[in-house]
Amino acid sequence: MIGANVIDMNRIIVITGGSRGIGAATARLAAAQGDAVVISYLRRRDAAEALVRDITRAGGTALALAADVGIEADVERLFRDVDSAFGRLSALVNNAGMLEAQSRVEDMSAARLGRIFATNVIGSMLCAREAVRRMSRRHGGAGGAIVNVSSAASRLGSPDEYVDYAASKGAIDTFTIGLAKEVAADGIRVNAVRPGVIRTDIHAAGGEPDRVNRVKSSVPLQRGGEPDEVARAILWLLSDDASYTTGALLDVSGGR
User: Fold this and answer.
1) Active-site residue identified among 41, 162, 165, 244
2) β-strands 91-94, 12-15 pairing
3) Which element (helix H / strand E) includes 139?
4) Which string of b and e fits 47-76 if b means at least 16 CB within 10 Å?
5) Residue among 114, 120, 118 nearest 98 (CA)
6) d(CA 181, CA 184)
7) Residue 225 forms beta bridges with which residues?
8) What is the pLDDT of residues 122-157, one digit of tens each?
9) CB of 116 within 8 A of CB of 222?
10) 165 is catalytic
11) Could you tell me which residues are beta bridge partners of residue 61?
12) Considering only 42-46, 203-207, 223-227, which range has the smallest mean pLDDT?
């Protein structure tokens, strides 16, 4: 059990992979508008706890919980802990994702593919499953919203770099459309954002920290995007302003 008292907030939002980048930006903006945010992290406990401190110092409510979204038991524990701390769930942002070093397909191992799909696809589906079980009117919930963080790579394919990552995000697009239709009558809206070239440290994981500057000339807006720009799109999709929007794939890609 994490906490004893149920906290009455505007909304309770779980943001996976929320310790940095787009997830952290979303957590900050959500907390600033009065939502309680739960951020999951895999390894960056320091970053997650620093983010929680920043939010609470500003008068917000936040909680950081460790979880590997690719492991079913971790996901189940994550959502049980959210239940214990807050008593209800309003929304989920499936943001946790990974890529590996730039590679052509003929050089990719099965182990690499397994890691990519375990986190990016299976993890998102497991988290959505747990969210639906709590939010669905079919299960006694009050409804809610899910936003999956996909990628413009799902349209572009990322040849010579991350075809596996792009394929995993293509799966997220399909999952978003299917789940949206499945749970619409249960009071849950499901949408996705597809960020383009965004200034986060995920590029360093691929072996090219300065990738944004290399490719920005291919973006019609001629620049990389910022995490806050994606976060604002996510929060719009979670909001009542998007009450008639479900199954949408919203590109936040500078026109690329």
Assistant:
1) 165
2) parallel
3) none
4) bbeebbeebeeeebbbbbbebbbbeeebbe
5) 120
6) 6
7) 198
8) 999 999 999 999 999 999 999 999 999 999 999 999
9) no
10) yes
11) 36
12) 203-207
